[in-house]
Amino acid sequence: MRVRTLAASVALAIGAVLAIAAPASAHPTLTVTASPTAVVSGTDTTVTISGTSNGNYTGARIDLFSTGGPGTLTSFTTFVSCGGGPTCTEVGALYRLALPSLTNGQAFSYTVTLTVDAATASTTFTPKAQFYTSGGSTTGAVTGPVITVTSPTTLTAAPATTSVQLGSALTVTLTATNVDNAARTYRITSADLPTYTTLGTCAGTPVATSTCTAYGTTGYEAAVAASTAGSGQDVAFTLNTTAAHASDTITAEVLVGGVVKATTTFTITVTNLYPDVRATKGTPTYNAVSQQITFRWNLTNIGTAAATGRTVTRTVTPAGLTSSGLGAGCTGNSDNETCPGPNLAPGASVNPTYTRTVALLALGTYTVDFTFNTPNDPNPANDTITFTCTVLTGLVVNCT
């Protein structure tokens, strides 16, 4: 009797020990949270997995994966760190947390910090965590909060030129993408900007600017109404130049609710250097055999900047002096012709010739004007030369 009683007591004791040491059939209940739940591509979010162990576990793991998004969790995120004691590794489409030993009733909290890749387009995804015993037993995944990813706001600044002549207008176009669907402000500033420019106009595309004003003593800003989130938005500032200025670095910003969303810089220089092309009349000649007049002149750039984009326009009054076709690259007609001219560095000089055939029926006195057009040339007084041609017959033509 005593033997049976002792045996029964031992059996009960062993059963009690086993009941304490072995986990129940259910696994620990997990809670999954994330912070922040709204992230910009290229920034971090931390997923926290917490719970209380319902038994003693050795060699258990938690797999962290996601649904939604542009692909598997590991395809658009990069592992940064994990906290709370586990060893974290990337395994295919998920991140695996190898857990330290757990005892019954032990509270745990593990964190996994991930960077959403900078190239990730706006999307949402939902983290999920699943507990596995060392033998691979599991009761299913626990769902965390939805995490919203937005593409970062970008801003580019494109001045029409980085070097502008004093007195000329300068247009700077700011282009923002992925801006919140809210009213926003575009701003250009530098310590010196208002000392050598004034605000001309500004215009927005596709949403028009509502105001365009000076910004304190450092620059200019334009307010734009809300447009579709993620769409491109251009604002073009046109500035009048009022003084020469060495290279100036200007900061461009786009703000929403007074908060800077993106910034960039660009440089401009306002020069007080101008081309000044002086035209001097040469001596024209006439070939009675070919019945061609050759006009000659000298062009000298007496200015301080290169003369580029030049043209020469020939005007004959009355019409009918010449009959030959247009020169290479020229436009117009035989009495009013515009041709490209050579570029001239400061101090450079050229001596062009210009030959045309006298018309068969030409007779009388003609005035031939050559006007030399050079962008930004401030001195038109020396840009035109005039020849006078008298035609008596096809053999007798005199030009001075």
Write the layout of secondary structure elements.
Blueprint: H1 2-21, E1 30-35, E2 38-40, E3 44-52, E4 61-68, H2 73-76, E5 77-83, E6 87-91, E7 94-98, E8 107-116, E9 123-132, E10 141-143, E11 147-150, E12 154-159, E13 163-165, E14 169-177, E15 184-189, H3 193-196, E16 197-205, E17 209-215, E18 219-224, E19 233-241, E20 245-256, E21 259-271, E22 277-281, E23 285-287, E24 292-301, E25 311-317, E26 331-333, E27 336-340, E28 349-350, E29 353-357, E30 364-373, E31 384-391, E32 397-399
Parallel strand pairs: 2-11, 13-21
Antiparallel strand pairs: 1-3, 3-8, 4-7, 4-9, 5-8, 6-7, 9-10, 9-11, 12-14, 14-19, 15-18, 15-20, 16-19, 17-18, 20-21, 22-24, 23-24, 24-28, 24-29, 25-27, 25-30, 26-27, 30-31, 31-32
